[in-house]
Write a structure and sequence with these properties.
Blueprint lengths: L5 E4 L2 E4 L19 E5 L2 E8 L2 E8 L13 E4 L5 E8 L2 E8 L2 E9 L5 E6 L15 E7 L3 E8 L16 E5 L13 H7 L4 E6 L8 H4 L9 H15 L8 E6 L1 H12 L5 E5 L5 H7 L7 H5 L5 H5 L12 E6 L7 H14 L3 E6 L9 H19 L6
């Protein structure tokens, strides 16, 4: 039931360290590695428990008399909760590591001393900015069919401002892409942008996400547009019931597959006041027809029967969508071409639903240029403010 590590030993297949943890990742991105040999007799690996990664060592030469005895997992203590791209050599391991207070970095760890050296950070947060960082709380919440789903909740944090004691914050629900990937608790300036401006953030690892075992991951098989939407909705309502968010100011955003979940939640649920789709899928039939070769037919596992494609596509349920939406798109996107967003925008405009469309020339599936990323965030914030606050013109 879990992505554990196995080896072939003669004519038998044996689990090296059987446990309820995922040692693997979905293989829709090339070149990822969660383990590497440090010597002929041992290797270093990362594994995921409840959405957080850990590092460990496995000796492949058993010290017991039995050749088939499970190898003991030896945890390696690190401050990182997001560990990926593991590479190793004699006496050391190099990996990409991040934590709620540290950005993703390339780290070299000495296996003899357990001393970690940061070789390069993705960015260097100034010390005076760290006081603004909101540290996530790992949450579990009830969802459909008496199941439990997972996420990270970030409370608003800005030491320069205090909200009125009776006011509950607006909540921004983030639906990750993939959709069988997962979000982590590593420091994200995107999330800190929102929490420093008074928003609570729920980063959802909805059913189908990696890191919670096979049964959890397979919840999405044939249920894309159902399970992910239900979990994002239930998570938002759960936090509102807990008094951590304003029930009347719930917003959802996402990119790629997360953009599809965003649009589906707005079309098929009456919970969110507004949403933002970053290069999101609005027409599953068009995705199946137009997407690139590597991800072709992925939709058949996620949706299943072809007759469900239109039923699950937000573009064919615009009549049900009444909440304002802002769309961001790259002009050279080959994964989700611009026509996906443009068709949806035209339909919403004809219906009279408040909608914005921001096209970035030269950008692809995910924005790379700093000025475009900044422009998109500022536009998204103003869009939400124009809806949630009185006195601003939309």
């Amino acid at each position: 039931g879990w992505w554990n590590l196995y080896r072939q030993n003669g004519g038998t297949i044996e689990a090296l360290a059987p446990m309820e943890a995922d040692f693997g990742l979905p293989q829709w991105i090339f070149g990822r590695s969660t383990y590497a040999f440090a010597s002929e007799g041992s290797f270093i690996c990362s594994y995921t428990v409840l959405g957080e990664q850990r590092l460990a060592r496995l000796d492949t030469v058993s010290s017991t008399a039995s050749k088939t005895a499970p190898v003991k997992l030896q945890p390696i203590d690190t401050p990182y909760t997001d560990i990926d791209e593991v590479r190793a050599g004699p006496g050391y391991v190099v990996f990409k590591g991040g934590s709620p207070t540290e950005p993703s970095s390339i780290v070299r760890l000495d296996l003899a001393t357990s001393q970690a050296e940061v070789l390069r950070r993705s960015f260097d947060p100034r010390d005076d900015l760290r006081r603004y960082f909101s540290v996530p709380e790992t949450i579990e919440f009830p969802t459909a069919n008496e199941l439990t789903s997972h996420g990270f909740f970030y409370a608003p944090r800005n030491p320069d401002f205090t909200a009125p004691p009776e006011e509950k914050p607006p909540l921004l629900v983030i639906s990750h892409g993939g959709p069988t990937g997962a979000t982590t608790s590593a420091l994200s300036l995107l999330i800190q942008y929102w929490t420093s401006r008074g928003f609570g953030v729920l980063d959802v690892n909805y059913g189908g996400s990696t890191g919670y075992g096979r049964d959890y991951r397979r919840r999405l098989n044939g249920q894309w547009g159902v399970v992910d939407v239900e979990d994002c909705t239930r998570g938002a309502l759960y936090l509102a019931e807990q008094g951590k968010a304003d029930r009347e100011r719930l917003i959802i955003r996402g990119g790629s597959a997360g953009g599809y979940t965003t649009l589906a939640a707005l079309a098929f649920r009456d919970v969110f006041r507004a949403g933002a789709s970053y290069y999101g899928v609005s027409d599953i039939e068009a995705l199946a027809r137009d997407t690139h070769k590597f991800e072709s037919r992925y939709d058949q596992t996620l949706v299943g029967a072809r007759e469900l494609y239109r039923e699950r596509s937000p573009i064919y349920s615009v009549d049900k969508l009444t909440a304002p939406v802002i769309f961001f798109q790259g002009s050279e996107d080959k994964v989700v071409p611009p026509n996906q967003a443009e068709t949806m925008v035209d339909a919403l405009r004809k219906k009279g639903v408040p909608v914005c469309y921001v096209l970035f020339e030269g950008e692809q599936h995910g924005f790379r240029r700093a000025e475009n990323i900044q422009r998109a965030l500022d536009a998204e914030l103003y869009f939400y403010a124009s809806i949630l606050l009185k006195g601003l013109r939309f």
